[in-house]
Amino acid sequence: xxxxxxxxxxxxxxxxxxxxxxxxxxxxxxxxxxxxxxxxxxxxxxxxxxxxxxxxxxxxxxxxxxxxxxxxxxxxxxxxxxxxxxxxxxxxxxxxxxxxxxxxxxxxxxxxxxxxxxxxxxxxxxxxxxxxxxxxxxxxxxxxxxxxxxxxxxxxxxxxxxxxx
Length: 165
Known about the structure:
By secondary structure, the protein is α/β, with parallel strands linked by helices. Helix content is 28%, strand content 25%.
């Protein structure tokens, strides 16, 4: 029998993502399961380190998690643009990012910090955790975003507000 995650990822895969005000639907995988080079490159560009203007090949499994969450939202009749707050980070950007850890999955192109329109961070986090069984999910309730990565399985919740400097 087919797992519900496989069902949500069947066929062509694309993600409606927004960064810096413009939303774009990017097809990163063909219906046959092959990477769509052009769409994948555009997704990697959208997930680049904007502070250093550096791009990295993102883990396609991370894109699958984002796609799966979005398809679940759409399946349930909810608006679901994925706002990208952070994707790949250079070491310098990571060190200057509040709350980041030394061996962050962002350094390897395996993480994204996101906000999903139409979903609270609690709901988005619960969906990410459910869909991303083998990876990490961090829910930042007071700051309103979710961290998703394809590293080791772990979950955390933060209620800390952003520090004022």
